[in-house]
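[Discussion] Sanity-checking designs against the backbone

I'm trying to build intuition for which residues belong where. Below is a structure token string of 250 positions. I'd appreciate it if someone posts a full sequence so I can compare it with mine line by line.
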């Protein structure tokens, strides 16, 4: 787990196929700049645009962003309203960018909790991009990993009642077929900004072997150069998945 940015470029052959990001620090950025929290969220949206564009350019196959957690519903109503308005604005304004970059847009989470007008814009953007062939941009909205796993377990219990033989035939990796997006790749790299060192109920099943990169940079300041630093750090690691590299084998 890295806690400092590094200056080197990432070798193309070691580019992660799937990146997940916990975007943290909008409020702290605003406080440090003596601006309202709303400005931190707006500047954070600019980072989403920049990082999405750069990941698509580099050839990353999937980018998953933790945009709004189930716990975020506990925030003050004015801030939730602002976040939902910013999300709606993003969904509308970024359609041209999504199409120009051949991006497939998706979201996972308890999407039925989103305001109807926001969900409507999400569906429009999702459907418009469905036939694109490039990078998948996935937003985790009203998302909590424990809830996702709990709902998956209930689906498995239903299968056990309806088709015991099919249930008994399940293998461990089949569990992903009950998750919100069964096609989601396990992230190769998880980035967390603002120097928070916890997972925060994010992709608990999917990140079992994910490399983790932590930076002090607040999300509104996380742009292309900071992304390249994270990729360089990832490229410097030897991924073993519990095994050994060849020279360690006796």
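Best answer:
Here's mine. Compare freely.
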């Amino acid at each position: 787990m890295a806690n400092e940015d590094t200056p080197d470029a990432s070798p193309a052959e070691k580019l992660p196929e799937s990146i997940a990001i916990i975007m943290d620090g909008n409020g702290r950025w605003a406080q440090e700049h003596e601006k309202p929290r709303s400005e931190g969220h707006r500047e954070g949206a600019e980072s989403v645009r920049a990082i999405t564009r750069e990941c698509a350019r580099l050839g990353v196959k999937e980018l998953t962003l933790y945009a709004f957690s189930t716990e975020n519903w506990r925030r003050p109503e004015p801030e939730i309203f602002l976040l939902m308005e910013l999300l709606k604005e993003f969904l509308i304004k970024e359609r041209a960018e999504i199409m120009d970059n051949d991006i497939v847009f998706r979201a996972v989470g308890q999407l039925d909790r989103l305001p109807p007008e926001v969900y409507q814009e999400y569906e429009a953007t999702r459907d418009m991009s469905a036939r694109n062939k490039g990078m998948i941009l996935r937003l985790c909205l009203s998302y909590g990993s424990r809830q996702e796993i709990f709902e998956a377990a209930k689906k498995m219990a239903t299968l056990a009642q309806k088709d015991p033989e099919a249930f008994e035939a399940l293998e461990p990796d089949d569990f992903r077929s009950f998750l919100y997006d069964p096609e989601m790749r396990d992230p190769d790299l998880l980035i967390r900004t603002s120097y928070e060192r916890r997972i925060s109920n994010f992709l608990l099943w999917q990140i079992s072997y994910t490399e983790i990169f932590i930076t002090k940079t607040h999300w509104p300041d996380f742009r292309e150069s900071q992304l390249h630093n994270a990729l360089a750090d990832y490229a410097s690691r030897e991924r073993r998945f519990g095994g050994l590299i060849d020279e360690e084998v006796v």
